[in-house]
Every structure is written in C-alpha cells, then in structure tokens.
Amino acid sequence: MSFQDKVVIVTGASSGIGAATAIKFAEEGAKVVLVGRNQEKLNNVSKKCGNPLIIAADVSKDEDAKRVIEETLRYFGSIDVLVNNAGIGSRTNILDKDVIPVFDRIMSTNLRAVVVLTHLAAPHLVKTKGNIVNVSSVAGYRVFQENVAYCASKAGLDHFTRAVALELAPHGVRVNVINPGPVRTDIVENMGATKEIVEATFERLRSMTALSRVSDSDEVADLILFIASDKSKAITGSSIVTDNGTLLKGNSMSPLEG
Ligand code: NAD
C-alpha cells in the first residue's frame, strides 16, 4: 500500500490513533502533515515520520484550520488525503448546568472543525482526486449514557461524511468514516481522568465488547490506510466499524426468561 509522495494531513497527530496513522503513512512514503495543539508531543511523533510538516494548531479555531491548509499547500503544493482524527470526549448529561458550553466545545472540535477543514481542502482534493477519512466512533451508531454531546457529534460526523461523499463523488473524491470501539489511547486521560479512572474506564470498555478486548491505535491506523488507499477505490460514503463487537454486544441479553 504505497503512498509514495502523497501529501497526507492528519489532525490530532500528537497522540493515539492520529500519531499511529501519521507514522504508518510516513512508513509508506507519504509526505505527512502533523496537526495538533501540543508542539512537544508533535515533535516526538515527527521523529518517526521522515521529514513531516508540523503545524501546531487548534482545529476548532477557523483561523488555525485555514492555516493548516495554507501551510500545507505552501510547503508541499497539494493535498491527497485528509484524515480528520482530532476529537475530544466529555461526560455530558442534558440536565447538567454547564451542558451547553461543553456541548459547544465538543461539537466545535468533533464536527465543526471537520466541516471547516473539509470545505477548505475539498477544492484541492478535487485536483488530486484524493480522499478524506474521518474518525468517528461507535457512539455515532448507538448512544451511551452520560455522552449526550459526544454521541451527537459523532452521529453528525457520520451523516456529514455521507452527504459530502455524495457531493464529491462526481469529482472522483472519496469520503469515508471509521467507527472504532475502545482503543487504548490518551483520550480518557485527556478528559482529566486520574490513572485509576483511566484503568477502570478501559476495563469497563473491554467488558462491553463481544471479543473482550480493547484495540491499540495501530489497528485503527491500518484500517485508515486501507480506506485511504487505491485498494478501496469502490468505497465511498461508508462507515467502517472496528469495535471488537461492541455494537453486537450492546443489546445482546437473552429475551428468554428462566
Ligand atoms: P487522543 O486523546 O490520544 O488523541 C486525540 C488527539 O486530538 C490528541 O492529540 C489531541 O491533542 C488532538 N486534539 C483534540 N482537540 C484538538 C483540537 N481542537 N485541535 C487540534 N488537535 C486536537 O485520543 P484518540 O483516542 O487517539 O482519539 C482520536 C479519535 O478517535 C477521536 O476523534 C476520538 O473521538 C476517536 N475515538 C477514540 C476511541 C478510543 O477509545 N480511544 C474510540 C472511538 C473513537
């Protein structure tokens, strides 16, 4: 699966799925653009990415999103693949006093930033007949308790993916979304959880899967590369689930009593 000299933008590349994805694209010969907020973490990832372009940016800010596309074009001259991976989680209930500001923050990163980046990158992807891979979640398929904002953002992202896939298909641009179940990354820690809570959360997530396991970032990164590659030339507007059977197990209680 060579991406020799393809220009690939990965948002949220400073840790987890984004870091693993950027490293794998670089291993396949891509010119990688690492986008994230933490310069030090980006520098660490960049050591495994050949000669990447590093852009410290908060994708939820329009001016930063604009800078991501402009700097990529100035440095590499084109865009072949956009991986919209940056995302955040938070505990939210509709009865919470502060639900609205938290909802706004989650939607700005998980959905609005993807819309802005897609809008800015699309004309350039049309030129290269490139493609977009969005990173959603099984939370786009089903709801989880205390996750009002996250679930809404990911369901919105899934539907946005399909709408844009339909619009860009005549231009030869594919747009897809990956829906992971639990993946061992910094996501829970980045929500402010202690080490103990992080461990307990991943243990609970593991118990919610049919396969009784949590994925690592490389598994999701491999799938992202496959979907971005020519091997997937027939795939557009698809949501690809990689969840260790979380959706299967969701409502799997026997209906039979006794
Ligand atoms: P992570 O916290 O390790 O990585 C997310 C990255 O996005 C971080 O580098 C973070 O700094 C960056 N980011 C967040 N907001 C940003 C912003 N405004 N601007 C720029 N960068 C920003 O978590 P991860 O698990 O690797 O998450 C990657 C994606 O996978 C997210 O969209 C997440 O919703 C999704 N996902 C994760 C899991 C899981 O169990 N880890 C499951 C399903 C979906």
TrEMBL record:
The keyword Oxidoreductase applies. Residues 6-186 form the Ketoreductase domain. The keyword Coiled coil does not apply. Pfam families: adh_short_C2. It comes from the Eukaryota. One of its GO terms (biological process) is lipid metabolic process. InterPro entries: KR_dom, NAD(P)-bd_dom_sf, Sc_DH/Rdtase_CS, SDR_fam. Keywords: Oxidoreductase. One of its GO terms (molecular function) is oxidoreductase activity. This is 3-oxoacyl-[acyl-carrier-protein] reductase FabG-like.
